[in-house]
Specification:
Layout lengths: L1 H8 L5 E2 L4 E3 L4 E4 L3 E3 L4 E3 L6 E5 L2 H11 L11 H6 L5 E4 L4 E2 L4 E4 L2 E4 L4 E2 L4 E3 L1 E4 L7 E5 L2 E3 L4 E2 L4 E2 L4 E2 L4 E2 L4 E2 L7 E4 L4 E5 L16 H16 L4 H9 L6
Parallel strand pairs: 1-4, 2-5, 3-6, 4-7, 5-8, 6-9, 7-10, 8-11, 9-12, 10-15, 11-16, 12-17, 15-18, 16-19, 17-20, 19-21
Antiparallel strand pairs: 13-14, 21-22
């Protein structure tokens, strides 16, 4: 649905690179001012597993904080520590060849930087903030620290990457892992909290998602053919038949 992506979804990005492949783009929610995604991205979404990419703006948080403290006897002046929470502008910057699977959530208050060829499996969650203070739970955002994910990283199903974490190039985060500290490059990390259980051979090349696009024209024809096959029965008669006599292959 390239026309839907370009007409309705592309304007929601600060930058969306060339030739994105977005399955069910109406199930992708982009919120905020600073979301950038590079070339040849693939996003797969579903009505039951929408993709959410959220970038909060500093000015919005300041206004909310003033509103929360409006009933105080003295005028509210943010402390230095609270001001530091708002240093970031909620910048999400993702590289080329990124894969985002259904139900992925990326929530940013300061900075989330994603390299080339990164794969986010179903239900994974990336956040750079706690979103509430431990003691002042009316305070938006709470503690926040930038997240950096290197090239060709694979984030497994339902894994969580927390604030202040750096994940090195080519590493794999296992399904259900909770990453609360840095993961070095060329390794596999699992568990809660995530820890390294295997080191990859740094001298062995990793074939990243860019390999799919080395012959871009051939890849584009393949994707277009798959799209036509997926929608070949999307006719009025086909829809009526489906409503009355659904089949296993629908």
């Amino acid at each position: 649905m390239a026309w839907y992506t370009n007409r309705y979804l592309r304007p929601q990005f600060k930058h969306l690179g060339k030739s994105p492949t977005i399955v069910r783009p109406w199930c992708v929610n982009i919120f905020g001012y600073n979301v950038s995604l590079g070339d040849h991205a693939m996003i797969i979404a579903d009505k039951e597993a929408k993709v959410h990419i959220v970038s909060w703006a500093q000015s919005d948080l300041e206004e909310l904080s003033q509103l929360i403290h409006a009933d105080s006897q003295a005028p509210y002046t943010p402390s230095q520590k609270e001001q530091e929470r708002w240093v970031g502008q909620g910048i999400i910057k993702m590289g080329d060849f990124v894969l985002i699977c259904p139900a992925v959530r990326i929530h940013c208050a300061t900075s989330i930087t994603v390299g080339n060829g990164v794969m986010f499996a179903h239900g994974s969650y990336i956040t750079d903030a706690d979103w509430h203070g431990l003691y002042d739970r009316a305070m938006p955002v709470g503690a926040t620290a930038p997240v950096t994910i290197g090239d060709n990283v694979w984030i497994g199903n339902n894994a969580i990457v927390c604030k202040g974490v750096t994940i090195g190039d080519n590493s794999v985060v296992g399904a259900g892992a909770v990453v609360v500290r840095d993961i070095p490059p060329h390794c596999v990390a699992v568990g809660n909290p995530a820890r390294v259980v295997k080191e990859l051979d740094p001298n062995r090349p990793v074939t990243g998602r860019e390999a799919i696009y080395r012959n871009f024209e051939q890849t584009q024809r393949m994707l277009e053919k798959a799209d036509r096959n997926a929608h070949k029965n999307n006719t009025m008669l086909g829809w009526m038949r489906y409503m009355l006599f659904p089949r296993q292959d629908d």
